[in-house]
Amino acid sequence: MKLAVLEQLYKLYSEFVNTQEVCCKRFCAFCCTRNVTITTLEGFYIVNQMSAKEKEDFFGFLDLDLSKDRYIPKITINQLADCCRNGGTPPEEEIDPNWTPCSLLKGEECPVYLFRPFGCRCLVSKVQCGETGFAQIDPFILTVNTIFQQYIEHIDSQGATGNAVDILRHLKSEEFRQDYQRNDVVTGKNLISNLAIPCLMIPPEHRQKVKPILTSIHRIRV
Ligand code: SF4
Ligand code: SF4
Q: What residue owns the CA closest to ligand 1's atom 4?
């Protein structure tokens, strides 16, 4: 059920991106760093479509990067919304765009491209990052990205968020996958607990423009 909702959110987001002016395409991998964060649901979606042999190979090459620097989030997007709503100060976080390449990347190819997490789908740029050295993202796209991220965490509120490597490493364990499928609250090293949406983070200037997108999301019955 949750996987079906996730798929519909990905589809809706893809329809939105198709209306935007972006340079992104498959095999363009300049943005593939080790700083991608994902939810347990997104990790489960990736692992769930692999055969036993594919899982063995996948986790094998993932293990090789376990000791490398990567972004370890301290707060989820919905925890951040809650913190801001209550006038709190978010924790300082350590992130370096030079922590590359993503541990999953093989050459220029993402081996899970069709099932890639939202953090990869939503990094879309108006310019070719390989030429400019940085991505250029429209502020309205950033607002839409935040909304989708908040809903993806919301539908996985008993799950967790973490660096893609950490979430996937936990999902290597059959026991962890079974706990997760039973809707047990999942915990583990470098994982932070997800939260249902406390409020949506939408800047005043985008509130009107996002209404059709919010209506479409609510039609999915998130
Ligand atoms: S964000 Fe940049 S590097 Fe990534 S796919 Fe888009 S253009 Fe390519
Ligand atoms: S999961 Fe795939 S698309 Fe995302 S950063 Fe890694 S290689 Fe790139």
A: 31
The model carries a pTM of 0.95
Residue with CA nearest ligand 1 atom 2: 129
Task: Give the number of whichever ligand sits closest to the CA of residue 27.
Answer: 1
Pairing label, strands 37-39, 192-193: unpaired
Ligand 1 centre distance from Cα of residue 97 (Å): 14
Atom of ligand 1 nearest to the CA of 24: 6
Q: Domain range holding 203? A: 2-219
Q: How many domains, the chain?
A: 1
Is residue 44 within 8 A of residue 171, CB to CB? The reply is yes
Mean pLDDT by 10 residues, the chain (222 residues): 96 97 93 96 96 89 89 98 97 94 92 96 94 93 98 97 96 91 88 97 98 96 70
Q: How many CB atoms lie within 10 A of CB 48?
A: 13
Question: 116 C-alpha vs ligand 2 centroid, how far in Å?
Answer: 7
